[in-house]
């Protein structure tokens, strides 16, 4: 039965943010809090199967559907998710379209009595802070990143040491529990924006997000004690305890249908043949290679990846997302005869892969990942070692966490961030030999490989425990809900 609490969840319309937000909505609703998620028609279709199953199971979840004015902002009709953008040059238009949801949302809130007890918003929607302020509702943010990233970002903002450096200069990330080295060109866009006009435009957006973030009531994080405890402790201290680590979210999807449809209801079509293929492979023998929802490798970079996997001689699954370059990639696949050469040993997925379902299969032995935070934590939950190939955003931080702190990763050797939309300028960063070498290393049967596998399996168990009844994430979730309850009571007394 639902309690008297009601939370409003506002996701960024982008799979890497919406997927964990949907999981989080289910998680909070499991604790008898009514949660309304703001959604648009196309996303309601894409994520609706999972949400409606949760509602049918009795969870107090509501959908608040708002029209998305894509065409008013120069976006193709029906373009309601960042991964639908024909080019990332349209990101500015997309965010402008998102900001117009403020008015209809405020109209709904005006009518609502009582108001929600808290707004959980993606931090990349700073206009939601204005909504929260107007209606005097605590604004809790979620940005789908680790405490390692939060702490590293905070410390860099305070120290500004990156400002005096050139791109190739090496720095030690200030104030972290471990000595983490990286070059300036591997830092996220906030510290390493590049010189393009788009970069300059983005700078002010990032700064606005950062300013709003500092005003947040608190922060929810998809992470858990036991994986990055020292980073969590430090970050909680910094935020006076108003940080709640309630992950890992992907583990909440316990049935195969939810796993198969996580992120796209249609991926169920792909997943059936893929799972049948995996059933034929031996335990821990397959490398699963995927770059998340936004990265589009250039055809030349894709070729190096494909040939590297072929050279490694391991069975593999390769997720192909070419975006506007799909035709070129398909042409190469066809003319080069790649698919027929790797027939039986390589399985290609075009479009959306049921990642969490695939990773949970006993045949998967390693995950070649772009180190998006969701993918990184899903790799941890699956208990598999990873080949790390960061692309953009904070992904080099995640690589350092996986390789250096957790000890479960092998670097492919990426050298610098490739900002979304600037892939062509980056040329080929990683050669087929690098891919092959990293694949052999991660699958290595010697002591080093075995150590990585032992650590990965251990972390899987720690992740499972975190969300059990006595687990740290359960504890933090209860702490969060009680905090909001108390805040509401105090507000009523004072009001
Ligand atoms: N994902 C998936 N199938 C795909 C691509 C991505 O299920 O074909 C999911 C993946 O499991 C993860 C999310 O989409 O939950 C991607 O988030 P991440 O932070 O890893 O990377 P991003 O897409 O934001 O770069």
**Main beta-sheet annotation:** 7 strands, parallel
Bound molecules: uridine-5'-diphosphate
Helical element count?
19
Instruction: Provide the number of structural domains.
Output: 2
Strand content: 5-15%
Instruction: Round the mean pLDDT to the nearest integer and report it.
Output: 95
Question: Which architecture of the largest domain per CATH?
Answer: 3-Layer(aba) Sandwich
Query: Tally of extended strands?
Result: 15
How far is the first residue's CA from the last residue's CA?
A: 28 Å
Shape: globular
Question: What share of residues is helical?
Answer: 40-55%
CATH homologous superfamily heading of the largest domain: Glycogen Phosphorylase B
Query: Stretches where pLDDT falls below 50 for ≥5 residues?
Result: none
Specify the CATH class of the largest domain.
Answer: Alpha Beta
Question: Which value, in Å, is the CA radius of gyration?
Answer: 22 Å
At the fold tier of CATH, the topology name of the largest domain is Rossmann fold
Helices and strands, with pairings:
Blueprint: E1 6-10, H1 15-29, E2 34-39, H2 41-56, E3 61-65, H3 91-99, H4 102-111, E4 118-122, H5 127-134, E5 139-142, H6 147-159, E6 170-172, E7 181-183, H7 197-214, E8 218-221, H8 229-238, E9 243-245, H9 256-260, H10 268-279, E10 286-290, H11 299-312, E11 316-320, H12 326-336, H13 338-341, E12 346-350, H14 355-359, E13 364-369, H15 373-382, E14 386-388, H16 395-406, E15 409-411, H17 432-443, H18 447-466, H19 472-494
Parallel strand pairs: 1-2, 1-4, 2-3, 4-5, 5-8, 8-9, 10-11, 10-13, 11-12, 13-14, 14-15
Antiparallel strand pairs: 6-7
Uridine-5'-diphosphate (UDP) binds next to helix 1, helix 14 and helix 15.
Pfam families: UDPGT (PF00201)
Keywords: Glycosyltransferase, Transferase
GO molecular function, one term: UDP-glucosyltransferase activity
């Amino acid at each position: 039965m639902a309690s008297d609490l009601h939370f409003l969840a506002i996701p960024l319309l982008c799979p890497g943010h919406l997927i964990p937000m949907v999981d989080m909505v289910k998680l909070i609703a499991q604790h008898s809090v009514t949660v309304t998620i703001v959604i648009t028609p196309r996303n309601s279709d894409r994520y609706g199967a999972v949400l409606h199953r949760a509602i049918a199971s009795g969870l107090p979840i509501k959908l608040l559907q708002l029209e998305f004015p894509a065409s008013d902002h120069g976006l193709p009709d029906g373009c309601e998710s960042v991964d639908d953008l024909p080019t990332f040059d349209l990101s500015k238009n997309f965010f402008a379209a998102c900001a117009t949801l403020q008015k209809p949302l405020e109209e709904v809130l005006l009518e609502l009595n009582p108001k929600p007890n808290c707004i959980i918003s993606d931090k990349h929607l700073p206009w939601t802070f204005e909504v929260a302020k107007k209606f005097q509702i605590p604004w809790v943010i979620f940005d789908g990143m680790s405490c390692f990233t939060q702490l590293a970002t905070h410390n860099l903002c305070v120290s500004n040491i990156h400002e005096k450096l050139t791109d190739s200069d090496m720095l030690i990330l200030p104030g972290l529990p471990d000595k983490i080295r990286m070059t300036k060109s591997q830092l996220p866009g906030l510290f390493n924006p590049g010189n393009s006009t788009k970069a300059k435009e983005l700078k002010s957006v990032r700064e606005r997000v950062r300013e709003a973030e500092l005003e947040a009531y608190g922060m929810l994080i998809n992470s858990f004690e036991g994986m990055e405890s020292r980073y969590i402790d430090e970050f909680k201290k910094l935020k006076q305890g108003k940080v709640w680590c309630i992950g890992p979210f992907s583990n909440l999807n316990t049935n195969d249908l939810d796993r198969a449809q996580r992120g796209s209801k249609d991926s169920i079509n792909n997943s059936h043949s893929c799972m049948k293929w995996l059933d034929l492979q031996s335990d821990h023998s397959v490398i699963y290679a995927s770059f998340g929802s936004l990265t589009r490798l250039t055809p030349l970079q894709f070729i190096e990846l494909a040939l590297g996997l072929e050279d490694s001689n391991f069975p593999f699954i390769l997720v192909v997302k070419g975006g506007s370059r799909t035709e070129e990639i398909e042409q190469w696949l066809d003319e080069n005869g790649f698919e027929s050469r790797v027939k039986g040993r390589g399985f290609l997925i075009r479009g959306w892969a049921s990642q969490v379902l695939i990773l949970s299969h006993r045949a998967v032995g390693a995950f070649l990942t772009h180190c998006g935070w969701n993918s990184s934590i899903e790799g941890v939950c699956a208990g598999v070692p990873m080949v790390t190939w960061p692309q953009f955003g904070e992904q080099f931080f995640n690589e350092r966490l996986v390789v250096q702190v957790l000890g479960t990763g092998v670097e492919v050797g990426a050298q610098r961030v490739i900002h979304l939309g600037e892939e062509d300028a980056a040329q080929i960063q990683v050669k087929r030999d690098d891919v092959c070498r990293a694949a052999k290393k991660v699958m290595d049967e010697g002591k080093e490989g075995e150590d990585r596998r032992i650590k990965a399996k251990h972390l899987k168990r720690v992740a499972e425990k975190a969300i059990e009844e006595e687990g740290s994430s359960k504890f933090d979730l209860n702490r969060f809900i009680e905090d909001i309850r108390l805040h509401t009571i105090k507000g009523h007394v004072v009001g």
